Amino acid sequence: MVKVEKITKTFESRRKKVVAVDSLSFSAEPKSIYGLLGPNGAGKTTTLRIISTLLKPDRGKTSVMGFDCVVQPTEVRKRIGFLTSDMKLSGNLTPKELLKFYGELSHMRDTDISRRTKELSEYLDMNDFLDKRIGKLSTGMKQKAAIAVSLIHDPKVIIFDEPTNGLDILTARTVTDFLKDYRDQGKTIIISTHIMSVAEKLCNRVGIIFKGRLVEDDTLEGLYEKFGEDNLEDVFFKIADREGVIEIV
Ligand SMILES: Nc1ncnc2c1ncn2[C@@H]1O[C@H](COP(=O)(O)OP(=O)(O)OP(=O)(O)O)[C@@H](O)[C@H]1O
Ligand SMILES: [Mg+2]
Description:
Bound molecules: adenosine-5'-triphosphate, magnesium ion
Distance between the termini: 41 Å
Oligomer: single chain
Low-confidence stretches: none
Radius of gyration: 18 Å
Number of helices: 9
Number of strands: 10
Shape: globular
CATH class: Alpha Beta
CATH architecture: 3-Layer(aba) Sandwich
Strand content: 25-35%
Strand order of the largest sheet: 6-7-8-3-9-10
CATH superfamily: P-loop containing nucleotide triphosphate hydrolases
Order of helices and strands: EEEHEEHEHHHEHEHEEHH
Mean pLDDT: 93
């Protein structure tokens, strides 16, 4: 369970002030996928970084399984797997070595690291490149390795920023199927995306975010009904029009 209550985050530079997240609240439940949907610069990554304890909000409160993200960040980190869109793996290590390194950082036993590595590489179809150097892998292979690394400690809560960005449809399908399986195992999953079809296929509930504000928070069916549409793209345009982001003529 993840609870976000009225968080606000402002970035200030000498010239301007950006309210990246503006009094935003939502919650995500176990055995479900919550999708944060919004255009570029809407505040999705900032929100996910706050939940993942990498950023502190100016105001508001976030908790993961009852642990406060500001007061108890270590407890929170033990329970989450965080994948960021700007975490690019590189270097001379192989995925297997990297998984061992991160497993040890999480104080896992060697036998558990081996078991988990086997499990994740089967799941994510990584066996062919488990022993190749990261620097020599393709974008999709690197993304799979990054996903595996973020999940080595088998977290209950999974926070993935744009998990299918830059992936071909086959690799994207492996990742989305994997997330669905994980959901069905009882994990609480939050993803961000600006790809409507990803949200339609994966999410039980979506939060639509414009300029840092959560302007809708509902199930897909709830949104279709409310806006009299049968797909998320049309719903999204209607909301953008209502919010004055675009004008539909
Ligand atoms: N570290 C930072 N310093 C200053 N401004 C920032 C910082 N991080 C984010 N911002 C600003 O906050 C706003 C929200 O950015 P954020 O990265 O959360 O958006 P996003 O919804 O993830 O967008 P995208 O779809 O492009 O990834 C933007 O205006 C961005 O320029
Ligand atoms: Mg982002």
